[in-house]
Design brief:
Layout: H1 8-26, H2 41-62, H3 68-84, H4 98-108, H5 110-128, H6 135-150, H7 157-187, H8 202-250, E1 258-259, E2 265-266, H9 286-289
Antiparallel strand pairs: 1-2
Helix pairs in contact: 1-2, 1-6, 2-5, 2-6, 3-5, 4-5, 4-6, 4-7, 4-8, 5-6, 6-7, 7-8
Length: about 300
């Protein structure tokens, strides 16, 4: 279950943003560095990324999938992540922001997770002075972490936190794998067996990159994976409960609409807005809340 439903138009924009992100990371396998220089790529990617993030937010607002309350939640969580990141970044790969991305993407959905990943890293870079050519790649990497968390399948309460913890560990390796692609073509001696060489077949290029990733960042990525796995296991249940309670109280879901016998819309009585249900939802008496219309809403699946 997610607290924010992403309509079709917003899904198209998110898919386009994800595609641009994949291209930004995987271009070394299809384009030589001389044709896509490192001096021009980061500013272009950063500009395209900002446009795509704005497009995602505007599309969700226009389609009713996100409102002022959800934007406020986005701002709060971005500020929290910006404050958490300096506590761990730079020490043996320890990262303290990924567990928030994983849990928020799970509760609030893939569009929210994608946007939160971008805004969190942007705010963190401004706070810590980490602005540089690597920043757009970090924003895209975290955006994928939050987005994929929103795509995880439903799970029972007892299995949900372990599933998110395993995904958190995976996301730690995924982030490092993606970030290495941004500088691999420019950072290794061309005579090395793990260096990027333009014109090689894809399979050989891929083999070289896997060796480069294992040799340069496996230990760092392991620190990030272990940190995220542990944080999700320890604080995940409490944070999930807080996020879902905030989603209920903010009432992100659209208002229930009733239709009279003649086909006209009947506005619901005050306070009869739909509330998300599931393992953490408060019990609601349908007979007490909707007795005016003699309608009982079945509980939705988590």
């Amino acid at each position: 279950m997610t607290a924010l439903r992403i309509p079709g138009r917003a899904r198209i924009v998110i898919a386009l943003a994800a595609f641009i992100g994949v291209v930004a990371f995987t271009w070394p396998f299809v384009v030589a560095p001389g044709k896509f220089g490192s001096n021009y790529a980061p500013p272009l990617i950063f500009g395209a990324l900002l446009v795509l993030v704005l497009a995602v937010v505007i599309a969700e607002i226009a389609a009713g999938g996100i409102d002022a309350k959800a934007l406020a939640m986005l701002g709060v969580l971005s500020a929290v992540n910006a404050g958490l990141r300096p506590l761990g970044a730079g020490t043996a790969g320890v990262e303290t922001v990924f567990f928030v991305l994983v849990l928020a993407g799970r509760v609030f959905g893939l569009g929210f997770g994608f946007t939160l990943g971008c805004t969190s890293l942007f705010a963190s870079a401004l706070l810590t002075g980490g602005v540089g050519p690597w920043m757009p790649y970090q924003m895209f990497g975290c955006a994928f972490v939050g987005m994929l968390a929103g795509l995880l399948p439903p799970a029972r309460r007892r299995w949900e936190v372990p599933m998110l913890a395993v995904y958190g560990a995976f996301s730690g390796y995924l982030f490092g794998f993606l970030l290495n692609l941004s500088f691999w073509p420019f950072s290794t001696d061309p005579n090395s067996s793990i260096a990027y060489l333009p014109g090689l077949p894809f399979t050989e290029q891929w083999h070289r990159y896997l060796l480069f990733d294992l040799a340069t960042s496996l230990g760092w990525d392991t620190g990030r994976a272990v940190t995220t796995f542990t944080a999700v296991l320890v604080v995940g249940p409490a944070v999930l409960t807080v996020f879902r309670r905030a989603a209920r109280r903010a009432n992100f879901e659209p208002t229930v609409r009733f239709e009279a016998a003649d086909g006209s819309d009947v506005p619901p009585a005050p306070g009869n807005a739909a509330r998300p249900s599931g393992p953490d939802a408060d019990p609601v008496s349908a007979s007490g809340r909707f007795e005016r219309f003699a309608v009982q809403l079945p509980p939705s699946c988590p």
